[in-house]
Amino acid sequence: MLTRLGMPGDEKAWTALGFTVSDGGFLIGGISCTIDTRPSWGFDGAIADPELLGIPELLSGDRDELPGDTIHPNAVSFIDHVVYWVPDLDEAVAALTAVLGDGPRRRFRPRGPSGPEMAFFRAGATVLEVVASGKPASLPGIAFGTRDLDATVAAVRAADGPISDPKPAVQGGRIASAWSGHLNWGIAFYEPAPR
Question: What is d(CA 88, CA 171) in angstroms, rounded to the nearest whole number?
């Protein structure tokens, strides 16, 4: 289960995106987010050594002991997915299956035959979107989840944060993105389609 994320950017940058930052991070959906660090992650209950994944491991810290999640001004209440670029999808699928103890939920080319092949794993409440990029393993971005994207966009703009207008998302629902230069890391806010 994914329980920890390390993310670039300082408190000012994250506050401008509508997050309430305390002691170098914040909680969302039971995941402890540590800021001002390189992209990294940590798992509880890993079956195999997470070093197999080629991403720095973020070890447990004090933030894991905080009770409950913070209510953020941007209305974000969960992490929808974390993007994981890999040089070889077969190798990454084997490594993630070993670490998580379960295989991908789905593997296909969501953007059509000319797009990259992807695999989708469930790691607790969060999806790991594994993308065959041909590049070294990295975590290039994240999609935070909200039940009201219009409120999220309004809150980010009220905090003077850089965010796009909402648009339809590939997977259904709607999405808005922070300007890529804000943190030099991919940040999206996603509202799932009603069920």
Answer: 23
Continuous H helices in the chain: 11-15, 89-100, 149-158
CA distance 171 to 53: 25
* pTM (two decimals): 0.92
Angstrom distance (rounded) from CA 26 to CA 137: 25
pLDDT of 38-95, one tens digit each?
A: 999 999 999 999 999 999 998 876 444 444 567 899 999 999 999 999 999 999 999 9
> In angstroms, what CA-CA distances link 28 with 20, 68, 151?
10, 9, 17
Cβ(85)–Cβ(165) below 8 Å = no
Q: How many other C-beta atoms lie within 10 A of the C-beta of residue 100?
A: 23
